[in-house]
Amino acid sequence: MELGIKGRWAVVCAASKGLGKGCAMALAQEGVNLVINARNSETLVTTAQQLKALNPGIDVVTVAGDIGDTQVRAAILAACPQVDILINNNGGPPPGDFRDWSRTDWLKALEANMITPIELIKATVDGMSERGFGRVVNITSGAVKAPIEVLGLSNGARSGLTGFIAGLSRQPQLVSRNVTINNLLPGPFETERLESALASEANISGHSLKDVTEKRLSGVPAGRFGTAEEFGAFCAFICSQHAGYMTGQNFLLDGGSYPGTF
Length: 262
Description:
InterPro entries: NAD(P)-bd_dom_sf, SDR, SDR_fam. By secondary structure, the chain is of the alpha/beta class. Helix content is about 45%, strand content about 15%. The chain contains 9 helices and 7 strands, in the order βαβαβαβαβααβαααβ. The protein has helices spanning about 20-30, 40-55, 70-80, 105-130, 150-170, 170-175, 190-205, 210-220, 230-240, and strands at about 10, 35-40, 60-65, 85-90, 135-140, 180-185, 250-255. It starts with 8 loop residues before the first strand and ends in a 9-residue tail after the last strand.
C-alpha cells in the first residue's frame, strides 16, 4: 500500500533505539524526511547513517539532547522545515515502590512523559492545520490500560497525557483540517526498557530474571515479545494519508495480553 507521505517531514523523538528507531525506520522507507533526536549523540549519528542507507533519497537531521530541555526542543523545531508528522516518545521513569518516590520524582515523570509531548504538540499542530495535513503519534504504554505495579510513575504521567489527548484530538479546528492525534500503547517489546523492567521486578521479587521473563512471556498469547520493526510499521500507517478519519484513539499493541473487551 502506498501511504502517500513521501516527501513529508517528521520529527521523531528518542529515535536512536527501540520503538522510536522502529518508527523512524518505517517512515524512512516511505520516503519521509526526518529530524531525529536522542540523548546520546554518537548513537544518534549511527542511527542517522542507517536511516540514510535505508533510503538515500531522504534528508536525515540529528539533534542530540534531552527532549525535556526547552532549548533542545527549540533546536529540533528549528531544524525541521515544517513538521508534518510528530512522533512523541521518551524514556519512562524508573520502576520502584511509590513509598520511595518524592515530589521531585513525580514532577520529573510528569515533565518527561506528559508536559514535554504537550509542549511539542502545542508548537506544531496549528501549522499542520494551516497546511491541511498533520499526524501526531504519542508512544505511551500498555500500562495506561493495564497498570504495572512497579511502574507507578509511568502509569500516572502517561495516563495524564492520554486524558489530555482525548480532548485535544477532537477539536474541530484540527481534525476537520486533516490533523489527527493518536496514541500507541506498546505492551512487551524487545527493548532495553523491557529488559530494565524485568530486571527490576526480579530484584524486588527475589526471583531469577529467567523466571520473571518466562512468567511475563506466559501472559502474552502471541507467545513472543513484539519487535520494533512491526511497531514502526503500524506507526507509519497511522501517519499515512489513509488515516485522516481516525483520531483520539489508543492503539494497544501487546500480542493479546490485555484480557478486556474495551
